[in-house]
Design brief:
Helix 2 packs antiparallel against helix 3. It contains three helices and no strands. It is about 70% helix and about 0% strand. It is elongated. The protein has one domain.
């Protein structure tokens, strides 16, 4: 999986981000513990999650 940067995440729609999150989650689950692929997937998950959180309304 290619790293989804925070910049790339910001340019995607919310629906696309949910799809990317699922893809990154599956890549994380399938990767070997401690592998580069797993670290990239985890970083992508964090970037996508941060972007989704920034779009949530404040109460």
């Amino acid at each position: 999986m290619k790293l989804v940067s925070r910049f790339e995440a910001a340019s995607r729609s919310t629906a696309e981000l949910h799809g990317l999150f699922k893809e990154a989650f599956n890549a994380f689950a399938a990767a070997s513990r401690g592998s580069k692929d797993r670290r990239i997937a985890l970083s992508s998950l964090e970037n996508i999650e941060a972007e989704l959180a920034s779009r949530m309304p404040d109460y």
